[in-house]
# Entry
Amino acid sequence: MGGEFHRLIRPQVYTQMHYAISEVTHMDMGELWSHGEEFAVAARDFLGWCGEESIYCTWGAMDLTELQRNMRYFSVENPFPKPLFYYDIQKLYGLFYKDGVKPSLDTAVEEMGLLENRPFHRALDDAYYTGKVWARMMEEWGEERLLPYRSVDYYRIPDNKKEEVRMVFPSYSKYVSRGFPSKEDAMKERSVAEMKCYKCGRMLRKKVRWFTPNQKIYYGLALCPEHGYLKGKIRMKRIDDTQVYVVKTLKLTDEDGALEIMARKDDMRKKRAQRSREKKKRMKSGQNKKTR
Ligand SMILES: [Zn+2]
# Structure
């Protein structure tokens, strides 16, 4: 363990603390007011303490986004590279131990037998435990297995085509697009819609074209002549009222995985057909009432 940095921040936007937060953090507004510092001062000190070439490790995907949101609000210059890569230890723990399911920090700490006489949910303690979990994972799996699984922070998305992010991991590939005015515009873009095998680089023909059951996640399926089925997932993410961007992941899968995508599409079709039947029925009965 290298060192630690800990500051309390004086609240400047919210004037009340939810009792549940006060309970889990053992902290109240009075304490923050009397011992807290201004965010901008603490943030600059923290960034200085980290130094320029730091690699950030977090539990979950929110911390760096939240930090940068606050930095912008309080006019602290953002020194992070773009894209900002980091390690989401929660995600890695899920990938390596739990088949992709992300556990709470309490659970991971307990499963690894790392519990100490130290509470959870205060920033420093959570950082401490996250460090412990990461160190143990490094012992168990080694850098070579773990370090390829970088995450990319989405607070500042790519500004243009050149900044778009393409990553290939041992078991999947990921692409982060620039912003588009609408979902439809995004889906029209070639780099969004294409499915390229991440093992051989072949551009693949789709077996199932992109479809979405909920307007948020799109699914697709393609077949590589050499590597088999490739399933795709596109997550539509909204930045604000004027822009969306996509995060696309492609993953090789087997026959069962391919069937699952096809079944999902079938299911969506059936539901849609049923909705339109119900709509017709409603219109009909509406007409009947009128004629009566
Ligand atoms: Zn291939």
